[in-house]
Amino acid sequence: MYFPPIGSDTWESISPNSLGWNVDNIEALNDFLSQNNSKSFMILVNGRIVMEEYYNGHTAQEPWEWNSAGKTLVSATTGIAQQNGLVDIENKVSDYLGTDWTNMDLEKENLITVRNLLTMTSGIDDTKQLVIKSNLTYVADAGTRWAYGNVFQKLMDVVAASSSTDFESYFNANLKSKIGMDGYWNEGTIFTIFHSTTRSMARFGLLGLNKGTWDGEQIIDESFFTECVTTSQSINPSYGYLWWLNGKSQFMVPSEQTVYPGSLVPNAPADMVAAMGAKDQRIYVVPSKNMVVIRMGDASDPQNPNFAVSGFDNTLWEKINAVIN
After folding, report:
1. Where are the coiled-coil regions (predicted)?
2. What is the pLDDT along the chain (325 residues), one digit of tens a residue?
């Protein structure tokens, strides 16, 4: 396993030929990505770059938005705060933010733990995505309903309150700088969005592939990271701690309460876990292949930008499989 050095543009590569890939199909993969509004694409194997492509005028030096793929940065930072003794995810959110942080009765508010925020099971109304107190209203008891929403960002407040600093400073010191990422958090329309270069997104994917370890240093406790990428509740088995999980028996998607049978991305390896954001921002981590795949760009379908999983994933993996298998 290779880890690119901190503070350097140096990154070892390995050729697709040496891995026995079907190089004749790489052009079709690149055409698909370019035609579907991608800005960048990378594949790492054992940490080394096998493919690194930029499309439609984008460059390696330009940052781009992670959108909800950045939720995984928040879960990782929450885990680091826990291992540093600042947070216990089993505790009530109000232990850190004080009571009355929602627009709910105290009895119902007190049911919401940090873990509920990590698993999208807070029971808070998911139809209002702007996280202000008046929108944080009761729908169900915490732990009884899975619904994808932006209330996860209260985790950022939990980390800030428990560390007596702002979230970005804590994240920078305890995660970003440790693995050599660039990037910044920017206030979006409805929540704070992380922006970085493609290689920095790949660095975080590589950290995930190695279960929170970076070149011998345990950045995120391995047991916590394992929880991040394991089914976290019984309602949506395809969801961990703000990570999406492939290969499960059923899944749910944002903005719906429908339960769909089958795997999240049928064409992808069953052990794949993913950070997924609107407009098809993706980190795919595939332990069985020691592989990390990154896609950044505009929405593959501008009429349907999607909050997370979309049909784009399955078609993309069909193209990837034609190269790697």
Report:
1. none
2. 999 999 998 999 999 999 999 999 999 999 999 999 999 999 999 999 999 999 999 999 999 999 999 999 999 999 999 999 999 999 999 999 999 999 999 999 999 999 999 999 999 999 988 999 999 999 999 999 999 999 999 999 999 999 999 999 999 999 999 999 999 999 877 889 999 999 999 999 999 999 999 999 999 999 999 999 999 999 999 999 999 999 999 999 999 999 999 999 999 999 999 999 999 999 999 999 999 999 999 999 988 777 677 789 999 999 999 999 9
CATH topology of domain 17-324: Beta-lactamase (3.40.710)
Q: Which of 254, 323, 283, 272 is nearest to 73 (CA)?
A: 283
Are 239 and 252 in contact, with CB atoms under 8 Å apart?
Answer: yes
Taking the whole predicted model, whether its pTM rises above 0.90 is answered as: yes
Q: Amino acid letter at 42?
A: M
